[in-house]
């Protein structure tokens, strides 16, 4: 399936690349940091990083903001709320909530690729309130009730 998603570069970000797939079949569009100046995340610190663009996607789509595995492996930089949820009706700037789980300060530079954005379909769901739920073998078992291995 193919979808058309509108993208709007926000003023002052003409030098920032729009989200881009780095290979033909990549799932994610890489996102570039639109920080005004270098931004240091100390170990354990979190920060909201602007991307310089906003979206309008059709109903039934969402975008997920996910970490880049290379940054996570090399520096412990990940998204605190992964996957971040971008709602189809959100028109504000897309931002990335990063956290430094590494042991060294990490500097985010303008134009650096900091995360990726994956589009997903969202089924239309209506909740129906009932007094009794249908039975299953699992029932209410969860949270490891089948054992560890
Ligand atoms: O990583 C993220 C997560 C969210 N958003 C934007 C788009 C999303 O549509 C909106 C609201 O996100 P969410 O529903 O996760 O936040 P909330 O804490 O429930 O806030 P709200 O009350 O504004 O919905 O914030 C981002 O830009 N980046």
Automatic annotation (TrEMBL):
Residues 16-147 form the dUTPase-like domain. It catalyses: dUTP + H2O = dUMP + diphosphate + H(+). CDD domains: trimeric_dUTPase. It comes from Paenibacillus physcomitrellae. Substrate binds at residues 68-70, 81, 85-87. The lineage of its organism: Bacteria, Bacillati, Bacillota, Bacilli, Bacillales. NCBIfam families: dut (TIGR00576), PRK00601.1 (NF001862). This is Deoxyuridine 5'-triphosphate nucleotidohydrolase. Belongs to the dUTPase family. Keywords: Hydrolase, Magnesium, Metal-binding, Nucleotide metabolism. PANTHER family: DEOXYURIDINE 5'-TRIPHOSPHATE NUCLEOTIDOHYDROLASE. InterPro entries: dUTPase, dUTPase-like, dUTPase-like_sf, dUTPase_trimeric. Pathway: Pyrimidine metabolism; dUMP biosynthesis; dUMP from dCTP (dUTP route): step 2/2. Its cofactor is Mg(2+).
